[in-house]
Amino acid sequence: MDTQRLILLFIFGFSLLMLWEAWDKEHRPKPLPAVPTAPQAVPAAAKPVPSAEAKATAGSVPAAAESAAGGETVRVSTDLLVAEIDTLGGTLKRLELLRHKDSSDPSRNFVLFGPHHGYEAQSGLTGENGPNHRSLWRALPAERSLAPGQDALLLRLTATGRDGAEVEKVYTFRRNSYEIGISLNIRNPRAAAVPAYAYFQLAHDGKPELSGGSLAQSFGAQSFTGFAIYTSEGKFEKIAPADLDKGKGEHSKHANNGWLAFVQHYFVSAWLPPDGAERDYVVEKRADGIYAGRVLIGTKLVPGTSASVSVRLYAGPQEKRRLEAAAPGLDLVVDYGWLTIIAWPLFWLLEKFHALSGNWGVAIILLTLFIKLVFFPLSAASYKSMARMKLITPRLTKLREMYGHDRQKMNQAMMELYKTEKINPLGGCFPILVQIPVFIALYWVLLAAIELRHAPFMLWIQDLSALDPYYVLPILMTITMVLQTRMNPVPPDPVQAKVMKFMPFVFSIFFFFFPAGLVLYWLVNNILSILQQWQIQRMFDRDKPAHGKR
To answer: Degrees (nearest 5) of the Cα angle 392, 396, 398?
Structure first.
């Protein structure tokens, strides 16, 4: 049991360190925001060339004279979202999700794209001639709201480049879908063939979205915020803004498959080009401090002909079923930490229990019970070891008193006692260590699953992803931890006994900063553990002295 306490003390100390780092991170002075020094730009070349590197590092789209003119905002609404497209650039500048509420103000809908992070979906043609996201486009008259029974809604924008190229940008919105189709239809009026490169870009300041101010994310579980690229060869690659600051952020540059996304807690936006189309991926930090990730797709325009480049944009919640249907590998953006291989089956079970109960809180309870049943043999072995140790605690205390001056003899006497009583001193540790990966994976599932965001449980718990407003669950959690401690054998060492006595109170402080769904899991797990430990201890005669030498 000394080894077990040592492990628990180590975990406790490490947790305190993590909490201190999280607190320091939240309260340290924030750096001053970068002052924009240049207009938004995309790499381009005066003369498009086949080289991917040339396309990525050539000049910038200049702030043309027409950019000074003001554009109009076109508002498009469907059953799931409200989009605002600025005709100055033809850019999707604001996207409001109607079925998801704001993290800090539940009375408002969640806004994914918007000026709060410089978050935009931009598109156009590279090169000085454009048109691009600095050009002025004209919106053609059409319906702006998806009517009942209507499956799709189109918004058409037109612009002409400096070389006379006529470009039509078409936004396609569909019912019950977070996918937005964006097509660039290009007509070449020139007498010579023109190689053109279309770009589809996501811009963001790289700062994570605040989720209600919960310290749980900072406590060793900060969800990833940044760009991600998926290809069949490179698989899933993350590019963090901090890596771009350091000139790093290596990733796949060219492929004929895959997608590029910007990932944040609960939500994602991703450009989804069609498979088979050659494309280049570029992620960088611009001079104005904004991070940009884009997909470049080339096409060759024969004189007097037209060409079209179409890409889908998924912009919405990280709902597993929608992500799987949108593109291969897109469900990997759900951040389940380094134990994803365990987290996916746990979330699958959680979904099944939710389908059975219709309540995510009840699903968490059923999942906790299922996990407890799976680990029952290991837990039983641990509690049996504790019960046996409790029987011989008086004899261990006597041995410490007898051989306190000679540690080697004391250890030999203790090992002989363990052997006589057929007790493995590590018997209570191994079951705990085996279960730790499962507990950590479930922690990430409950933290990352958007299905639990703003999901009610019962009574005062109306959001399992937020803190318990009255701290009832954390208080109950503290009580169960105290009960568990008292059911364990008291350490012979007075110092250890005091530490173990106060540890539940100190450790339970963390749970006051955890989402209610996580606290509910640990509370139910503790209650089941207490019942299991109580039942096992009943099997042992506590008043009967252990046999063997005295």
So the answer is: 120
Tokens of 527: 């209650």
Helix (H, G, I), strand (E, B) or coil at 180: strand
DSSP single-letter state for residue 119: B
Neighbouring CB atoms inside 10 A of 85's CB total 25
* pLDDT tens column, 207-252: 987 654 444 444 445 678 999 999 998 899 999 999 999 988 889 9
3-state SS class at 222 = coil
164: left (phi over 0), alpha (psi -120 to 50) or beta: left
Q: Show Cβ contacts of residue 79 under 8 Å, excluding neighbours closer than 6 positions.
A: 98, 146, 175, 176
Could you tell me the two tokens for 226? 């940044």
Residue 357 host element (H or E): helix 340-357
Has residue 140 been placed in a domain?
A: yes
Give the residue numbers spanning the domain of 282.
Answer: 40-206+220-331
CB-facing half-sphere around the CA of 513: CA atoms within 13 A: 16
Residue 29 sits at φ, ψ, to 5 deg, of: -60, 135
The answer to whether 111 and 220 are in contact (CB under 8 A) is no
What's the whole-model pTM score?
0.77
120 shares a domain with 63: yes
